[in-house]
Amino acid sequence: MFHSGQWDTLRGGELMFLKKIAIKNFRCLKSLTLDFHKGVNILIGENNSGKTAIIYALRICFSYGNQYRDIFVTPNDFYIDASNPPIELKDIEFDLFFEIVNDEKAGIFYDMLSVGADEEKELQLHFRYFLNEKKGSKKVRYKVWGGDNEGQLVAPEVLELICAVYLGPLRDAVQSLRPVKGNILGDLYSNIEQDSDKQQCLAGKIHNLLQNDTEWRSLIDTGKDAVNEHIKKTRDEANLIQLSVTAA
Question: How much is the pTM?
Answer without folding.
Answer: 0.70
